[in-house]
Design a protein that fits this description.
Strand order of the largest sheet: 2-1-15
Strand content: 15-25%
Helix content: 25-40%
Number of domains: 1
CATH architecture: 5-stranded Propeller
Shape: globular
CATH superfamily: Succinylarginine dihydrolase
CATH class: Alpha Beta
Distance between the termini: 35 Å
Number of helices: 17
CATH topology: L-arginine/glycine Amidinotransferase, Chain A
Low-confidence stretches: none
Radius of gyration: 20 Å
Length: about 425
């Protein structure tokens, strides 16, 4: 049966701003307090979706979440109208309000972990919503993410959506950003790799807990013989690789990773080769691309996709071309004998400046034709819907947001209205 991979991108919301909320994220910290461009950010994200669509790849879209997030503020004791709640919260605790204003749900690689039908015990695709417990602003996302995913994947014959794991940071789960799937093809049984962090007293925290990864594997009914739990390199975490997808990406039989991505790479590579004979491991040596260059360029946060005509492409940010060491390596990679034969450079600078590259913006779902037909079509993109969403963004998204604007009631009203217009355009109102 034919299988296809759908990338569900998060549409960048109207509150996109640079508040520097993500500890351990180098770009987020470096650009804290800068002026953001929400309209340009959303249009860049939509342009990326259109490029994938034009390649012949199915493309999905998830709407931005409600921000400012009034329900969270009400639960913390602020009351009155929505505007009164926001005004009181901003006056009492500006840092708290910035968390409630964040547009971070755009990075849907953190929305959930997905295991397709060929890997699961009951033959359904399993999706576990990430709790994102390690960061306050991201922990607000899980409830609405679950709502959208249950709507998109409502057919229980093909899909099983699991609620976020409980027990807070003890089961901290960051979703697909710390999960890789390798297989001979999308529709073949695969090896699922869960990458977790170990706390070693560094200045940056490890966000993915091993217990969380183990729980997700159990919930999905995965074969233990084809499930690998791998520790992320603490060296990479402390350098700013807050998620595994900053230093490694996989697609079908290819693993593309930095030399310092994993704590015990020899053990991992051996286990992977045993579980998946024929795996192609492309390791980038630090002598050619150091961790700093890898993290600044987000080389490994490229989308590694299988092209309809065969072979694979790396959909990479413009920052890779701008870094001569990274770009020199990419040219060598494309000239070598491996399945990656094309580099597609895209502009997602607004997302990059906030710490998220092309792969951060998408959640991968592999489906057969029957499951594809069962997905709620409102979440799938075509040319007409893409044009409609672009018009909504151009008409309603703020052009710029300065740090001082975040406490402006007129901006809150604009952002709420913009989201309502977007939901109406997607027929999700």
């Amino acid at each position: 049966m034919s299988y296809r991979e759908i990338n569900f991108d998060g549409l960048i919301g109207p509150t996109h701003n640079y508040a520097g909320l993500s500890l351990g994220n180098v770009a987020s910290a470096a650009n804290a307090g800068e002026v953001s461009s929400p309209r340009a950010a959303a249009l860049q994200g939509l342009a990326k979706m259109k490029q994938l669509l034009d390649l012949g790849l199915p493309q999905g879209v998830l709407p931005p979440q409600e921000r400012p997030h009034v329900p969270a503020l009400r639960m913390l004791g602020f009351d009155g109208s929505d505007a009164a709640v926001c005004a009181a919260a901003f006056a009492a605790d500006p840092a708290l309000f910035r968390n409630a204003f964040a547009a971070s749900s755009m990075w849907t690689a953190n929305a959930a972990t997905v295991s397709p039908k060929p890997d699961t015990a009951d033959g359904r695709a399993h999706i576990t919503v990430a709790n994102l417990a390690s960061m306050a602003h991201r922990s607000l996302e899980a409830q609405e993410t679950e709502q959208w995913l249950r709507m998109a994947f409502t057919d229980e014959q093909h899909f099983c959506v699991h609620a976020p794991l409980r027990y807070g940071v003890h089961f901290g789960d960051e979703g697909a950003a710390n999960h890789m799937r390798l297989a001979p093809a999308h529709g073949a049984p695969g090896v699922e790799v869960f990458v977790y962090g170990e706390e070693k007293g560094g200045r940056f925290p490890a966000r993915q807990r091993r217990r969380a990864s183990e729980a997700v594997a159990r919930l999905h009914g995965l074969d233990p013989k084809r499930t690998l739990l791998v520790a992320q390199s603490d060296t990479a975490i402390q350098a700013g690789a807050f998620h595994n997808d900053v230093v490694a990406v996989a697609n079908e039989q290819v693993l593309f990773a930095h030399e310092h991505a994993f704590e015990d790479k020899a053990k991992f590579y051996a286990a992977l080769e045993e579980a998946l004979p024929g795996v192609v491991i492309i390791e980038v040596p630090s002598s050619e691309v150091g961790l700093e260059d890898a993290i600044r360029s987000y080389l490994f946060n490229s989308q590694l996709v299988t092209l309809p005509e065969g072979g694979m492409a790396l959909v990479m940010p413009q920052e890779c071309r701008d870094n001569h060491r990274v770009w020199d390596y990419v040219q060598k990679l494309l000239a070598a004998d491996n399945p990656i034969r094309e580099a597609i450079v895209i502009d997602v600078r607004e997302s990059m400046r906030n710490g998220g590259g092309p792969a951060c913006l998408r959640l991968r779902v592999q489906v057969d034709e029957a499951a594809l037909a069962a997905i709620d079509q409102r979440f799938l993109l075509d040319d007409a819907k893409w044009e409609r969403l672009c018009r909504v963004v151009e008409e309603h998204w703020p052009e710029r947001i300065t740090p001082g604007d975040i406490g402006n009631p007129a901006l809150w009203d604009q952002c709420w209205a913009a989201r309502r217009a977007l939901l109406a355009a997607m027929r999700l109102a």
